[in-house]
Design a protein that fits this description.
alpha/beta, TIM Barrel, 2 domains, nine-stranded mixed β-sheet, five-stranded parallel β-sheet, 30% helix, globular, binds N-carbamoyl-L-aspartate, binds zinc ion
């Protein structure tokens, strides 16, 4: 029983949890509570539905030195998440039902969050032949989100066929929008005055925007669902806004780092800021904030991308792309969007829980806080000021661009089907296992 928390920032209520489900909600929720009900104080805390991350790299199988399903799941629980979509760019690639089931089962075994594997669009992410989309969808892993993330599905014919195929089981293609003929594999800095000055290979905004534009037209043509991963430019936002006004079934996510951080961070050539797509100018970040607040962008997704030291500690051009994000996502959104008055806590519940759950077709996870729904809950301390310490992360990796930053708002407790999975960053059971 959680007593006196501000549910969605819309009013103080009690929430009774029985057998992993929300059994009652409201001032008299305690009536009929079984004897020996455990009581938790929610005074001053905001209760949100468990957060859902549409875009997480867990690295297992293949790079268990950078992250495992278990370590990434712990980081997710510490960050307030109860479900994550695990990207397919593992080794082997998640392009078969077998690999998808393996990742799914590893998630079950770890038990901190629900791990939903994302299936690859193409075999081996090679962009040539469709992967086993139907078999992955019908597998025990129930895959609904497909992505070649890390690479763009460049071939329009393959993208069209993938969209047509997933329509039959209400799947969605999540696209890493990057035309490689405009932004090749070495492109690592937003193309503009800064990339010229720093002498870094440019990654122009138009390399993203042309793919977004093409894909929304393919979505319209096929009547299928396309999702734009890690939107990073104002031009992409304009295309998405237009497409939605036409009734095209396009959804989009933005990362905490593209919302808050800008290209100026690259001036010191610190590879911790190297990410795909690159950090953009302030005007782009501002357009992303506006689009998130007005609903043009549906969701915040972390793109948590752990890398070992040896892959990150290189000259900027040679370092791996990606940064950690699971444990800092909620504090960043709180600091940037809620403290400033641009979004309410119920907006946060939408962009970090119910909308991503709906996009991934997670069923019951998308119902928010309701009687009868699984007790997947996140208690947030909206006023807690803290300085991010990379050393305290549950992740196996340390490529954390937020280290040393002061943020306001923190996850107090995470609950998965009524079981506490994390409390103030400390993951349930972690003390013993860290001995
Ligand atoms: N975002 C990144 O910079 N890197 C991701 C791949 C991706 O999301 O494109 C990774 O797998 O490391
Ligand atoms: Zn990507
Ligand atoms: Zn990614």
């Amino acid at each position: 029983m959680i007593e006196g928390a501000d549910v969605l920032g819309q009013g103080v209520q009690h929430v009774l949890v029985v057998d992993g489900r929300v059994a009652a909600l409201g001032a008299d929720a305690a009536d009929g509570a079984p004897e020996r009900t455990q009581r938790m104080h929610g005074d001053g805390l905001v209760l949100l539905p468990g957060l859902v991350d549409l875009h997480t790299h867990l690295r297992e199988p293949g790079r268990e030195d950078a992250e495992t399903v278990e370590s990434g799941s712990r980081a997710a629980a510490a960050g307030g998440f109860t479900a994550v979509l695990a990207m397919a760019n593992t080794d082997p690639v998640t392009d078969t039902a077998e690999v998808a089931e393996r990742v799914h089962d590893l998630g079950r075994r770890a038990g901190y969050v629900d791990v939903h594997p994302v299936g690859a669009v193409s075999k081996g992410l090679a962009g040539e032949e469709l992967a086993e989309l139907g078999l992955m969808a019908r597998s025990r892993a129930r895959v609904r989100v497909f992505s070649d993330d890390g690479r763009c599905v460049q071939d329009a014919r393959l993208m069209r066929r993938a969209l047509e195929y997933v329509r039959s089981f209400d799947g969605v293609i999540s696209q890493h929008s990057q035309d490689p003929s405009l932004a090749g594999p070495t492109a690592c800095c937003h193309e503009g005055e800064l990339s010229g000055r720093l002498g870094l290979p440019g990654w122009p905004a138009v390399a993203e925007e042309t793919v977004v534009a093409r894909d929304v037209m393919l979505a319209r043509h096929t009547g299928s669902r396309v999702h734009v991963a890690h939107v990073s430019t104002a031009g992409s936002v304009e295309v998405i806004r237009w497409a939605r006004a036409q009734g095209i079934d396009v959804t989009a996510e933005v990362t905490p780092h593209h919302l808050m951080l800008t290209e100026e961070h690259l001036a010191g050539y610190d590879p911790v800021y190297k990410v795909n797509p690159p950090l953009r100018p302030t005007e782009d970040a501002e357009a992303l904030r506006e689009a998130l607040a007005d609903g043009t962008i549906d969701a915040v997704a972390t793109d948590h991308a752990p890398h070992v030291r040896q892959d990150k500690e290189h000259a900027f051009v040679d370092a791996a792309f990606g940064m950690l994000g699971l444990e800092t996502a909620l504090p960043v959104v709180s600091t940037l969007m809620v403290r400033t008055g641009r979004m309410s806590w119920s907006d946060v519940a939408r962009v970090m829980s119910t909308a991503p759950a709906r996009i991934a077709r997670l069923g019951t996870q998308g119902h928010g806080i309701a009687v009868g729904a699984p007790a997947n809950l996140t208690l947030v301390d909206p006023a807690r000021e803290h300085t991010v310490d990379a050393a305290l992360s549950q992740s196996l990796s340390r490529n954390n661009p937020w280290h040393g930053r002061e943020l306001v708002g923190a996850v107090h407790l995470t609950m998965l089907r009524g079981r506490v999975t994390a409390r103030e960053g400390l993951v349930w059971g972690a003390e013993e296992e860290n001995e």
